[in-house]
Amino acid sequence: MKILAITACTAGIAHTYIAKEKLENAAKELGDHIKVETQGSIGVENELTPEDIREADVILISADIRVSKDRFTGKPVVEIPISMVMKSPKGVISKIHEKMGK
Amino acid sequence: MARQKLDIKKHVMTGISYMIPIVVCGGILCALAKGFGGYDIGSAVEAGATPFTNLNPFSWIGFWWGVNKLGSIAMDFAVAVMTAGVAYSIAGRPGIVPGIVIGYCSSQSKAGFLGGLLMAFIIGSFVNWMKTWKLPKWCVGLMPVMFIPVISTVVCGMIFLCVFSIPLSFVMNVFQQWIISLNGGAKAVIGGVIGACMGFDMGGPINKTASMAANALGTDGINGPMAAKIIGGMTPPIGIFIATLLRKNRFSKVELDTAKTALPMGLCFITEGVLPFAAADPARVIPSSMIGSAVAGAIAVGMGCESVAGHGGIFVVPMMKNPLWFLIALVIGSVVTGVIYAFLKQPLDEQVEKEEEELDFDLDINIQ
């Protein structure tokens, strides 16, 4: 499955990037393709391109702050607090599999 | 309901995340200016027709006065930025203008952080409601540039001034008076209470109210509480840094890096340096920092430390009364916070093990 994710935490210096790593490792283990955009205090890094979004099966937004969803019109979007990814990255991804029926 | 609760938290956190850089900027500039220009640098230049009329920025004092002014302006805008951030999170771009205006109004009226936060939610809901108005086609374009900024600012602003400004500043005042009234008792008690308040919410309403109380006492010439305020705001970030030294293996690599930035922030009296930790693990971080700050405040004031300067962190210590005891109290308080948090912090291994257990949660997939 092709997953796109956005991570963003309150201070934008720590958990944003830990969550990115955790998601990437978990996706690798479960055999999914993932790209993670970080919205830290420095701004957007590793930005999701329109092509990425067009090809994606699902968008996972794990954030404690506001993240704009304007780009994802017509796409399935999952929103969770970042702590859920911190605690259980694999759980989150398998749950998405289950819900998407794949 | 759970969803709503999550949203509220998200809005508040958005505001705080916008506020942190401006507080850091203001804090460090004030600290540097007071360190190099003297603690009363703020009154070194008399205001003329504008605050800057009599400024000679090419003199030593003039230069640092300018730096201090930049820092204090940044501090004045902290609540405004936070309010705008929360309103933006709720209502998008149209929330920013009323948020800045009313947030600034709130900090000026002494309703402070609490007033700004409350108003941000009112502004956000009001702007969202305005967006649903059905208007004739010719004036749809005027909505975002004229109707929303003007109407939301005047309506929410007057709601604030008519309804909330007076009771909020009254509540703040009562709390402040209570702290001031403690001044009659043992010195260590008021130092401890102010310290604990400073460590409780790291830059939030309790912290700001305690520091306003210390400022008020300072203008009456009672300068002990000011030392407690400074020390209570300095120990939490330093303490967390110490915790990472004590139990390196219980922190992730990114947390260790974050802790390294917390140390200089603590030395500059920017309590917000601890927010990344407090936001992630509040149940353990807040008690640790409250206890450390209270201990530090109690020791400092009990041993007769006094500070005329209201800000500046480590840079103003040489100008304090009993600076040596201040440093001793700072070390003890930080070590207390550090040891308690190092003890409470959950080991990384346990966190990893938990990964596999906590699978009974649900998530919704919505098509945008």
UniProtKB/TrEMBL annotation, chain A:
GO annotation (BP), single: phosphoenolpyruvate-dependent sugar phosphotransferase system
Domain PTS EIIB type-2: residue ranges: 1-98
PROSITE patterns referenced in this protein's UniProt entry, alphabetically: PTS_EIIB_TYPE_2 (PS51099)
GO cellular component labels: plasma membrane
Keyword Cell membrane annotated: no
Keyword Kinase attributed: yes
Domain of life: Bacteria
Pfam family membership, one: PTS_IIB
Gene Ontology MF terms: kinase activity; protein-N(PI)-phosphohistidine-fructose phosphotransferase system transporter activity; protein-phosphocysteine-sugar phosphotransferase activity
Protein's UniProt name: PTS fructose transporter subunit IIB
Native organism: Lacrimispora celerecrescens
UniProtKB/TrEMBL annotation, chain B:
Membrane topology: Multi-pass membrane protein
Subcellular localization: Cell inner membrane
GO molecular function: carbohydrate:proton symporter activity; protein-N(PI)-phosphohistidine-sugar phosphotransferase activity; protein-phosphocysteine-sugar phosphotransferase activity
Protein's GO biological process: phosphoenolpyruvate-dependent sugar phosphotransferase system
Main location as per UniProt: membrane
Entry keyword set: Cell membrane, Membrane, Phosphotransferase system, Sugar transport, Transmembrane, Transmembrane helix, Transport
GO CC annotation terms, alphabetical: plasma membrane
Membrane-spanning parts: 12-36, 70-91, 111-130, 150-175, 187-206, 226-246, 258-279, 291-317, 324-344
Keyword Transport attributed: yes
Domain PTS EIIC type-2 residue range list: 8-354
InterPro entries linked: Bacterial_PTS_Sugar_Transport (IPR050864), PTS_EIIC_2 (IPR013014), PTS_IIC_fruc (IPR006327)
Presence of the UniProt keyword rRNA processing in the record: no
Entries under PANTHER family matching the protein: FRUCTOSE-LIKE PERMEASE (PTHR30505), FRUCTOSE-LIKE PTS SYSTEM EIIBC COMPONENT-RELATED (PTHR30505:SF0)
Cited NCBIfam families: PTS_IIC_fructo
Protein's name according to its UniProt entry: PTS fructose transporter subunit IIC
Organism: Lacrimispora celerecrescens
